[in-house]
Amino acid sequence: MVVGGGIGGLTTALSLHAAGLECVVVEAASTLRPLGVGINLQPHAVRELTELGLGGVLAGLAVETSFMTFADRHGNIILALPRGRGAGYRWPQYSIHRGELQMALLAAVEERAGPVRTGVRFEGFAQDGDSVLVTLRQGGRVLRERVDVLVGADGVQSSVRARLWPTGDPLLWSGIRMWRGLALADQVLDGATVLLGGSNLAGKFVTYHISANNPRLLNWVAEVKETEPGPVREADWSRAGRLSDVLPHFESWKYPHVDIPAVLAGTRRILEYPMADRDPLPRWGEGRVTLLGDAAHPMYPIGSNGGSQAVLDARVLARCLATHTDPAAALSAYEAERRPPTSALVLAHRALPIEETIRLVTERAPEGFTDIGEVLTAAELAAMADAQRRISDADVRALNERESWSV
Fold it and tell me: What is the pLDDT of residues 304-333, one digit of tens each?
């Protein structure tokens, strides 16, 4: 049983089905709809989804990302990093609407493995060594179902994780407030670039196009540092944001690539939420219960890697379950493979590795520049590129040459 019908949970269902294993997905929402804004899929995730037969679907929905480009608040280009096939990978990086990706995964799951059970809320579990007794609630009914393995893929505020770690696992706010939205806009740069301007301290604005079928559809993210990091009791990822809160931070920007005030004013629904994560766990589960995706390793969304890591989790989990006779041993192998690298990513994201370089640019050229070589040394630019690659990239040769994870 997989708890959660998001990207991680649905990819898990597809991966298990491809490996010859049966599963059921339960989702608390009564209806799965194409909600959310844009995300990026890194080449390591695109490889896995392609091997699950979704390569053509992704190409028909998404924008193949060309560059990740960093600029100052005046729009002067600091660094442009090639992405996907432009960086030597055999697979592209894609910018895509999260809801469209989820609906594509859902359609594949329902075609291959059967319907997702919606309106079903996870409440608890108990193990006896040979199975897991799961307690669910559907409307006013309490359901108890026995399964071989329970996987919590239910997001940052995971109910499965809360049962495994009922205390000492707070949600941690970076102190950075984020606003996100979608708007129609003219092409930004080549129409396939993820453009990041400014820094958290004085305001950061990120834009990228996300639709192959609607090239003007632009995803934007605004980030502002408000306070020092610390724990928060809860966070609402669907909270409505206000134009009057975000616009003052960016209305004075001299930005040639996109009319930021017009994009903000043209956004029908603004979302507001804290940039938050949790500390890496010393273990993801016990016995026949484990975690996956944001439930296991929520991380700051600055490396375009959260959803991609969930896809990798799903594929490794399915491979381990299909190649071990003992489910508990399979989950231990899965965790041993996936927990160390994802824990390292969580901590690397917290360092906000690009911010120091952007701060240097702002200090040395507060009114902008014409030649970045007069502002940063070659070594500083190289360090900036390496810092970004550490939180977003896989080793090109290793990914291109390793054997398939398909079973």
Answer: 899 999 999 999 999 999 999 999 999 999
Count of C-beta atoms within a 10 Å radius of residue 341: 12
Place of tokens 């006013």: 140
Helix/strand/coil for 325: coil
Question: Above 80 in pLDDT, residue 96?
Answer: yes
Dist. CA 65–CA 68, nearest whole Å: 8
- The phi and psi torsions of 146 (rounded to 5 degrees) equal -100, 130
Distance, in Å, from the CA atom of 248 to the CA atom of 178, rounded to the nearest integer, reads: 14
For CA atoms 15, 17, 23, 25, the dihedral sign is: positive
User: Considering just the CA atoms, what is the radius of gyration of the chain in Å?
Assistant: 21
What are the E-state strand segments in 285-406? 289-291
The tokens 């439930």 sit on which residue?
A: 295
Bridge partner list, 184: 217
Please give the pLDDT value at position 238.
80
CA angle 382, 345, 389 (to 5 degrees): 25
